[in-house]
User: Fold Nuclease of the RNAse H fold, HicB family from Candidatus Nitrotoga arctica.
Amino acid sequence: MRTVKFTFWQDGEFFIGFLNEYPDYQTQGMHKEELAENLKDLLNDLESGHVPYVRKVEELMVA
Assistant:
């Protein structure tokens, strides 16, 4: 099992969020638990290759 960080906020009745490694791809849910399930589905789609031209954020170490 692994952990993945995500960012979320509430906008009216919806919880909206994105995976921190993939900030270009947002999803939503009526409650936080539904958002979390939708984020898991999104992660699966992004990592399986179903989404073309995936942009990802990584860290670069510089001296």
